[in-house]
Amino acid sequence: MTQKYNIAVAGATGAVGNEIIQILAQRDFPIDNLYLLASSKSKGKKIEFKEKEIIVEDLAEFDFSKAHLGLFSPGGKVSAEFAPKAAKTGCIVIDNTSYFRMQKKIPLIVPEVNASVLEEFFQDETRTNIISNPNCSTIQMVVALKPLHDKSIINRVVVSTYQAVSGAGKTGMDELFNQTQNVYANQELKKAKFTKQIAFNAIPHIGAFLENGNTEEEQKMIDETKKILDEGIKVSATCVRTAVFIGHSESINIEFDSPLDAKEAYEILSKSDGISVIDHRKDEGYITPVEIAGEDKVYISRIRDDESIDNGLSLWVVSDNLRKGAALNAVQIAEVIISQYSNYIKI
Fold first, then answer.
1. Which of 46, 151, 277, 331 is deepest in the core (most CB within 10 A)?
2. Is 68 a catalytic residue?
3. Which tens digits make up the pLDDT trace of 194-219?
4. Which of 89, 94, 56 shows the shortest CA–CA distance to 333?
């Protein structure tokens, strides 16, 4: 008989929480009891899971000793307070926020890239019981980079992102929708989530500006790539919010320490887990965000040699930021845990 687990989803009423619930159902995760948690204002709401209605509970009142695994996406401040409390009860927490990502005792995991890190984590008797999910834009990039890095060491990456408004949550999506309507109605455009008009626009500003001139989102991509993949990789990132609802796109330029041409890269990426290569050098022979909403893989197109440098390559990478960029990656981590490290789960 298959072992089933008690799962708690914190932030269940948010965009990522909703995706987590759907993905748990779609992938038939072995669940005994599912606890859906949110703030007190959402207490009592009902959310459907596998044709049953589950009542949302108050996160602040929940006893995490009842849960084997906790999938968290309630926002950084909330995770900072409640993830350690949950972990102390023996619940293994997989956190989607940025709060824990760069902490030394907490692994930052993309299953296709560095799942092996979990072995050392679980063998450590002083472990935190908290595992961190990387930033959405980092996840899709390192999935694309890892198989190439295994073949030829990457020295430097220059990435420009074109990020969907869903990365800013439901309020970001609502702002794009409302502004678009108001453009056509010739009405005032109201800004709340974004610093400038997002409808029909691109904003090179995601997160607060740091002292070095990077935004927080750019620095996340730099720091997280080093932690996940290789501290020796130099990364330059420019992160841009665009008028797209779902799906982050990235233009990635890579400099290797030895030759790796476009043809070989195509063959390597085509055989790699979690990747789908769609690359035909003709009209419509590439992938765009509209086509990958709701899909699980990282999609790669426009693989080509960069003749401006030695050992250079350019890629176009697109992925659903709510799924692989957040919810799916968290569920995949949970799947690795129950398949390979179930003896560390407090039953």
1. 331
2. no
3. 999 999 999 999 999 999 999 999 99
4. 94
The predicted-structure confidence for 257-274, as pLDDT tens digits, reads as follows 999 999 999 999 999 999
pLDDT per residue as tens digits for the range 82-108: 999 999 999 999 999 999 999 999 999
68, 136, 149, 239: the catalytic one is 136
Residue with tokens 């089933």: 4
Which is nearest to 156 in space by CA: 331, 345, 338, 311? 311
Active-site option among 68, 91, 149, 248: 248
Is 14 in contact with 169 (CB distance < 8 Å)?
yes
DSSP letter (8 states) at residue 104: T
Q: What is the DSSP string of 244-282?
A: -SS-EEEEEEEEESS---HHHHHHHHHTSTTEEE---SS
Residue 183 has pLDDT above 90, yes or no: yes
3-state secondary structure of 312: strand
- The Cα-based distances of 112 to 106, 329, 332 in angstroms read 18, 9, 9
Pairing of strands 92-95, 202-203: unpaired
Catalytic annotation present for 136: yes
Q: Tell me the CA distances in angstroms from 209 to 93, 206, 222, one per residue in order.
A: 30, 8, 15
Q: What proportion of the chain, given as a percentage, has pLDDT over 90? A: 98
**CB of 72 within 8 A of CB of 95?**
yes
Distances (CA, A) of 6 to 33, 38, 249, 326, 334: 5, 17, 35, 21, 12
DSSP bridge partners of 130: 93
Residue 48 has φ and ψ, to the nearest 5°, of -80, 135
